[in-house]
Amino acid sequence: MSHNIDISDSVWHIKIADISINRCKTLKKLKIIKHIFGIILFSILSTSCINESNQLYQTWVPVEYKNDSAIYESKWDFDENKSGIEFNSDGTLKYKRNGSYCGTPPITYEIVSGNWNSISDSLLELNIKPKSKYKKQLKDTFKIVEISKSKLVLKRFTTPK
């Protein structure tokens, strides 16, 4: 009795098995790439949402005062010859102000620390500590009239009497 073994059929089945294994590996790689891309996309979108909602957390330098409001522009750091305010996300702030009692030139500026808290969506309470024991602590409330990445408009908030 003679047994004829057809090698071509075995090779064909092996090739199909190899293709199936390679296809599974490729699909697994695609799934991994898809997950990595999703994580990266989520990270980018989350960061942009955080930045939009926390536009206050930066350094602001006044450019104009009008209608009882102070108009600030965003800067990397305080200007040398201007006052300014820097809000930090932890509730602390730096306030650059006139360091003397007189407003006539030459004006020297000092940077003092303080803290702030949000009373509501548009009201901020600022507490600024004096460097000198002869100056009083500043505690004031401001209304955010407008805010964007580059512009902040604050108006002193007073309660009606």
Catalogue the unreliable spans.
41-52
Strand order, main sheet: write it out: 1-2-8-7-6-5-4-3
Largest sheet: 8 strands, antiparallel, barrel
For the secondary structure, the number of strands is: 8
CATH topology description of the largest domain: Lipocalin
Share in β-strands: 35-45%
Query: Helix segment count?
Result: 1
Task: Based on Cα principal axes, name the global outline.
Answer: elongated
CATH class of the largest domain: Mainly Beta
**Radius of gyration, in angstroms, nearest whole number:** 32 Å
CATH architecture of the largest domain: Beta Barrel
Provide the helix percentage.
25-40%
In sequence order, what are the helices and strands, one letter per element?
HEEEEEEEE
Instruction: Please report the distance between the alpha carbons of the first and last residues.
Output: 116 Å
Secondary-structure-derived class? alpha+beta
Number of domains: 2
Average pLDDT figure:
78
How would you portray this structure in words?
With 161 residues, the chain is an alpha+beta fold. The protein folds into two domains: 1-53; 59-156, Lipocalin (Beta Barrel). The protein is 29% helix and 36% strand. It has one helix and eight strands, in the order αββββββββ. The protein has one helix at residues 7-53; strands spanning 59-66, 69-75, 84-87, 92-98, 109-118, 123-128, 138-147, 151-156. Strands 1-2-8-7-6-5-4-3 form an eight-stranded antiparallel barrel. A hairpin with a 4-residue loop joins β5 (109-118) and β6.
